[in-house]
C-alpha cells in the first residue's frame, strides 16, 4: 500500500544496450518537474550488451523511498521481458510493447495489451526509435499531456541537433496518437504536486555531500556499485576545485587519500567490498597516525566477486574488523539518499574532531537507486568544523603531535607549517612520535597511547543522534533495521498497523559508536522484536547482541540479491505473529 | 621554496632519535647524504616531508628533522603522492628498501613513474630482506642462498633502473651509499628535477647479505660521469644499467623532460596548495549543481 493518494509503478525491461536509461531518465524528469515523488530501482547484470535490465519506477504524491509492491504498467523492449513478467500483470494493468517484434505469451493474467506497430508508425530503421514510441504511449496511458513529453524530448536531445529533436518528437507524436486511438488510459491521472523536485542517486548524494563538506581530494578505482561517486566527482571536479585521481588499485587509492588527509585536505574514496578489502590496512594506518579520512563502502552481494550488480547488507563485519589490531573506527549506515548526503558533512566533522578514520556503509539499493528530493532540503553549505587543527605557523618550539590529553585529542598541525615539524608513524609511538616499537618497546608508554586513542571514542556518542522509536510505544511488534531498509520498513510498518497488527520500528544508523544503552531502553520494553536484514547470517543481529546482550524474537532476512519489497516484510511479520517461523526468508517474485 | 637567508647544515636535519641500524649498515650513508643534500640546497626542515614504507631503511624518517610519515609496507609512493597532491609546494622525499619498493610496492612504483609525480625516491637496495632476518628480495642475485632459499635463489632479479626508465620516470640514477659525496650530489640533482626521480642506492646489509658487501661494490663500481654518457639517451642508459658483473655503473643514467603530474593537474593551476584552501562550495556552484538535478 502506498502512503499517498496517487501510487503508480511502471517498469521498463529489455537487454543491456537497448537504451532503457533514456526513457527512464526522461520520465523521471517529467515526474519530478510535476512535483511528484519517485523511487526507482534498476535490476541489471554485469554485462555491457545483452542480459535482462529491469527498471522499476514508482511515482507518488507522497514521499516514496522504495519501489513498492506492484506494477501498473510494463513496457517491454524485447520478447524476454514479456516472457518473464507478463504473469505479474493482472486486470487493470497495461503492457506496452512493439508488436512488430514482440508477442504476448500464454501467461495472460488480464493485463490490457498495448501493442505498437512501430515500423508502420515511424518508417524508421533506428532500433532505438521503439523506446520513444513506447515512452509516448506510456505518457498517454498515464495521462501526461503530449506537450510535457515534447518539452522533455526537446530538452534531452537539443544538444544533439534539431534533426534529432524533430525525429524524436515526430515518432513520439505518432506513438501518442496511436495510443489515444487504440488504448484506454489509466483512470487516475498523476496529480500536480506543485513544487518541482530534483532527482538523484545515493552515489550522487554522497559525492555531493562530500563536495559540500569540503572534500578536496577524491581517489578511486572503478568498482560497481560505487563507481557513480567517481563519475560525479570527475564531472564536477574542475568547477569545484576538487582533485580526482583514478589510481592503479584500491591499495593505492586508500593510501593516497590517507596521505592527502595527513597533508591537510578533506579526502574521500569509495569502493565496494572487494576494493574495501584491499583498503583495510590503510584504515589501521589512519587510526594509528590519527588521520581524519573517510571511506565509502557500497555493499553488493558477496562473497568475493559475488553478484556485482545486486544488493546486500553483507559487509558490516568486514567494516567492524577492517585492518589488524584493536582499535575503533566510525561506521555509519545512512538510511536513505538525503540522509547519505547529510551524513557526509557530519562524518567529516567527526573525523576531523576525533582524528580517526570513518566508514560510510551504503549499498547498491540506495547508491544506484534514483530518488526524488525537495531541493530546498539539500543544504549545500553545511557547518564545517575541522576540530583542533593548527593552520598558522609558529616561532615557538616544542610541538608534540600526539600529546596525551584528557580527551585523547591532540592538536594537529598542517604539514608545511614552520614550527610544527613532526613525524606520523604506523609503528607505535610515544606522544612526541618517537617509535616505541623496535629498539626499546615500553609497556607503559604503549598502554598510554592505546588508551589515548581509545579515549577519543568515549565522547563521540555525545555528538551523534541516537535512534528514535517511530510509532506507538506499546505496539505489538517492533521492527529493527539498519541502513537502506529504512523506507521499506517504514511502509511495511504502516501496512501492518492498517492490517490490525500494531507495529513500531527502530532504524539504526550509527554502527560505531553504538547507542547500546538507548537501544536497550527501547527494546527491553518491546513485546516482539523482529530484525530485518538484507543478508543470510544476521550480521546486525549478531553485532547488536555482542554490544547489548539483546536477542530478538525473530528475523526476516533476504539474501537473493534483490532488495526487500514492503510486502515481504508484512508477510514475514504475519508468519511470525501466527507462530509459523521465527526466521522468515521472503520469496522474490520478480526474477531478473 | 628554498630559503637562502638561513644557512643550515646537515646537523640541523638530525632527527630526535638515533638510527637503530646495525653498525656498518649502508643506510647510514644514505641518511647522511640526504641530510647533506637538503642542507646544501638551502631547505628548512618544515619545507620537506620524508615518507617511507616499512623495513630497516624505512625507519629513516625518524632520524631526520623534517615532516615525516612512516607508513605501511610498500605504500610509501601512493602515500607520498597523496601528500604531494594535497600540498604541491612541499618537497617530498620518499625512502625505503628494495623489498618495500620493488616487491610489495611494485605496482605503485610502476604507476608513480608513469604519472611522473614530482617525488624524489631514494631506494636503499641491499638485495635482501633484513628486518625479517634474511630472505631473498626482488633484487637478490640468482644463486644467492638465504633462509628462504637455502639451495640458492632461482628467480631473475628486477632491474630497478631499466624498469624506472621503461615506466616513464624522468630522472633515473644509481649510487652507492659508501660514497656520500657522490650520492649527496645525485640527491641534490634529483630534488631539483621536476618529475619523478628515483635513485637506486646500493646500501649493503652487513648482517644478512654477505655477497653484495661494501668490498663487492668498491671493486666493481664505475661512475658514468667518468666516461662519456649522454643522459638523454635512454637506450644506452638501459644497456649500461643491465651490467652487473665486473663493472657496475653508478651515476645518472637518464634524465628526460615531461610535464609532472602537478603540472598537468588543472585543479593545481591556481589557488595554492589544496590543503590550505577554503572549504565549502560557493553559492553559484551549489545552485548550478541543484538545478542540474531538476
Describe the model.
The complex is a heterodimer of chains A (592) and B (294). Chain A has 592 residues and is α/β, with parallel strands linked by helices. In chain A, the strands form four sheets. In chain A, strands 6-5-4-1-3-2-14-7 form an eight-stranded mixed beta sheet, with helices on both faces. In chain A, strands 9-8-10-11-13-12-21 form a seven-stranded mixed beta sheet, with helices on both faces. Chain A has a six-stranded mixed beta sheet with strand order 18-20-19-22-23-24, with helices on both faces. In chain A, strand 8, helix 8 and strand 9 (243-246) form a beta-alpha-beta unit. In chain A, helix 1 packs across helix 5 and helix 7 packs parallel to helix 8. The relative contact order of chain A is 0.09. With 294 residues, chain B is an alpha/beta fold. Chain B has one domain (11-268): Rossmann fold (3-Layer(aba) Sandwich). In chain B, 32% of the residues lie in helices and 15% in strands. In chain B, helix 1 packs across helix 6 (180-192) and helix 4 (106-115) packs across helix 5. Chain B is globular. The mean pLDDT of chain B is 96. Chains A and B meet through helix 1, strand 7, helix 7, strand 8 and helix 8 of A and strand 2, helix 2, helix 4 and helix 10 of B.
Amino acid at each position: 500500500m502506498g502512503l499517498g493518494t496517487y501510487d503508480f509503478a511502471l517498469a521498463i525491461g529489455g537487454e543491456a544496450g537497448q537504451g532503457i536509461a533514456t526513457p527512464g531518465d526522461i520520465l523521471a524528469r517529467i515526474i519530478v518537474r510535476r512535483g511528484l515523488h519517485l523511487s526507482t530501482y534498476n535490476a541489471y547484470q554485469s554485462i555491457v550488451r545483452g542480459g535482462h535490465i529491469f527498471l522499476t519506477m514508482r511515482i507518488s504524491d507522497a514521499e516514496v523511498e522504495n519501489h513498492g509492491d506492484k506494477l501498473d504498467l510494463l513496457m517491454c523492449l524485447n520478447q524476454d521481458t514479456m516472457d518473464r513478467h507478463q504473469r505479474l500483470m493482472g486486470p487493470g494493468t497495461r503492457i506496452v510493447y512493439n508488436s512488430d517484434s514482440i508477442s504476448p505469451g500464454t501467461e495472460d493474467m488480464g493485463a490490457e495489451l498495448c501493442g505498437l506497430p512501430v515500423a508502420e508508425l515511424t518508417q524508421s530503421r533506428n532500433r532505438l526509435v521503439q523506446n520513444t514510441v513506447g515512452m509516448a504511449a506510456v505518457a498517454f496511458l498515464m495521462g501526461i499531456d503530449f506537450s510535457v513529453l515534447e518539452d522533455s524530448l526537446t530538452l534531452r536531445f537539443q544538444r544533439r541537433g534539431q534533426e534529432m529533436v524533430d525525429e524524436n518528437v515526430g515518432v513520439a507524436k505518432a506513438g501518442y496518437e496511436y495510443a489515444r486511438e487504440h488504448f484506454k488510459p489509466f483512470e487516475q491521472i498523476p496529480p500536480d504536486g506543485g513544487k518541482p523536485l530534483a532527482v538523484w542517486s545515493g552515489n550522487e548524494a554522497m559525492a555531493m555531500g562530500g563536495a559540500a563538506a569540503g572534500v578536496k581530494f577524491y581517489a578511486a578505482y572503478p568498482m560497481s556499485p560505487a563507481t557513480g561517486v567517481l563519475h560525479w566527482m570527475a564531472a564536477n571536479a574542475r568547477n569545484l576545485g576538487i582533485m580526482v585521481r583514478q589510481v592503479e588499485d584500491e591499495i593505492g587509492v586508500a593510501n593516497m587519500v590517507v596521505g592527502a588527509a595527513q597533508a591537510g585536505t578533506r579526502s574521500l574514496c569509495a569502493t565496494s567490498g572487494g576494493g574495501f578489502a584491499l583498503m583495510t590496512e590503510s584504515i589501521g594506518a589512519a587510526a594509528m597516525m590519527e588521520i581524519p579520512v573517510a571511506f565509502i563502502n557500497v555493499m553488493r552481494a558477496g562473497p568475493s566477486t559475488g553478484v556485482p550488480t545486486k544488493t546486500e547488507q553483507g559487509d558490516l563485519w568486514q567494516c567492524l574488523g577492517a585492518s589488524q589490531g584493536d582499535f575503533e573506527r566510525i561506521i555509519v549506515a545512512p538510511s536513505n539518499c538525503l540522509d547519505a548526503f547529510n551524513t557526509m558533512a557530519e562524518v567529516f566533522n567527526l573525523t576531523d574532531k576525533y582524528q580517526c578514520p570513518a566508514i560510510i556503509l551504503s549499498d547498491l539499493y540506495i547508491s544506484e537507486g534514483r530518488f526524488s528530493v525537495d531541493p530546498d532540503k539539500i543544504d549545500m553549505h553545511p557547518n564545517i568544523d575541522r576540530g583542533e587543527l593548527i593552520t598558522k605557523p609558529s616561532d615557538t618550539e616544542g610541538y608534540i603531535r600526539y600529546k596525551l590529553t584528557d580527551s585523547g585529542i591532540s592538536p594537529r598541525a598542517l604539514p608545511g607549517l614552520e614550527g610544527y615539524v613532526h613525524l606520523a608513524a604506523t609503528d607505535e609511538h610515544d606522544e612526541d612520535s618517537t617509535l616505541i616499537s623496535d629498539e626499546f618497546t615500553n609497556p607503559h608508554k604503549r598502554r598510554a597511547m592505546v588508551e589515548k586513542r581509545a579515549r577519543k571514542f568515549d565522547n563521540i556518542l555525545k555528538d551523534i543522534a541516537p535512534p528514535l522509536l517511530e510509532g506507538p510505544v506499546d505496539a505489538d511488534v517492533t521492527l529493527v533495521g539498519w541502513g537502506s531498509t529504512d523506507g521499506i520498513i517504514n511502509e511495511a510498518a504502516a501496512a501492518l498497523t492498517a492490517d490490525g497488527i500494531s507495529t513500531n520500528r527502530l532504524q539504526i544508523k550509527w554502527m560505531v559508536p553504538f547507542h547500546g544503552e538507548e537501544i536497550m531502553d527501547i527494546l527491553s520494553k518491546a513485546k516482539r522484536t523482529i530484525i530485518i536484514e538484507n543478508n543470510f547470517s544476521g550480521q546486525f543481529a549478531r553485532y547488536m547482541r555482542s554490544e547489548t546482550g539483546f536477542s530478538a524474537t525473530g528475523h526476516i532476512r533476504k539474501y537473493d540479491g534483490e532488495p526487500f519489497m514492503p510486502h515481504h516484510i508484512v508477510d514475514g511479520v504475519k508468519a511470525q505473529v501466527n507462530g509459523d517461523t521465527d526466521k522468515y526468508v521472503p520469496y522474490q517474485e520478480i526474477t531478473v | 621554496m628554498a630559503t637562502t637567508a638561513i644557512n643550515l647544515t646537515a646537523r640541523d636535519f638530525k632527527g630526535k632519535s638515533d638510527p637503530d641500524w646495525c653498525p656498518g649498515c649502508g643506510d647510514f650513508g644514505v641518511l647522511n647524504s640526504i641530510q647533506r643534500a637538503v642542507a646544501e640546497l638551502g631547505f628548512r626542515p618544515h619545507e620537506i616531508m620524508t615518507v617511507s614504507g616499512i623495513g630497516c631503511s624505512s625507519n629513516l624518517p625518524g632520524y631526520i628533522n623534517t615532516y615525516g610519515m612512516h607508513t605501511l609496507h610498500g605504500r610509501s609512493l601512493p602515500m607520498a603522492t597523496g601528500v604531494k597532491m594535497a600540498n604541491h609546494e612541499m618537497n617530498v622525499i620518499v625512502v625505503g628498501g628494495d623489498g618495500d619498493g620493488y616487491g610489495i610496492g611494485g605496482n605503485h612504483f610502476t604507476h608513480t613513474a608513469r604519472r611522473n609525480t614530482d617525488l624524489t625516491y631514494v631506494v636503499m637496495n641491499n638485495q635482501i630482506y633484513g628486518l625479517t632476518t634474511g630472505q631473498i628480495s626482488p633484487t637478490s642475485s640468482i644463486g644467492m642462498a638465504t633462509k628462504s632459499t637455502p639451495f640458492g635463489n632461482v628467480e631473475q632479479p628486477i632491474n630497478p633502473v631499466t624498469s624506472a626508465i621503461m615506466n616513464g620516470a624522468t630522472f633515473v640514477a644509481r649510487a652507492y651509499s659508501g660514497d656520500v659525496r657522490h650520492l649527496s650530489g645525485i640527491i641534490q640533482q634529483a630534488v631539483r628535477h621536476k618529475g619523478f626521480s628515483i635513485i637506486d642506492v646500493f646500501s649493503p646489509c652487513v648482517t644478512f647479505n654477505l655477497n653484495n658487501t661494501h668490498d663487492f661494490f668498491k671493486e666493481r663500481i664505475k661512475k658514468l660521469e667518468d666516461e662519456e654518457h649522454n643522459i638523454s639517451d635512454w637506450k644506452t642508459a638501459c644497456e649500461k644499467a643491465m651490467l652487473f658483473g665486473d663493472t657496475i655503473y653508478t651515476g645518472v643514467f637518464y634524465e628526460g623532460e615531461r610535464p609532472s603530474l602537478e603540472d598537468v593537474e588543472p585543479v593545481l593551476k591556481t589557488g595554492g596548495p589544496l590543503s590550505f584552501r577554503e572549504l565549502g562550495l560557493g553559492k553559484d556552484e551549489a545552485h548550478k549543481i541543484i538545478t542540474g538535478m531538476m
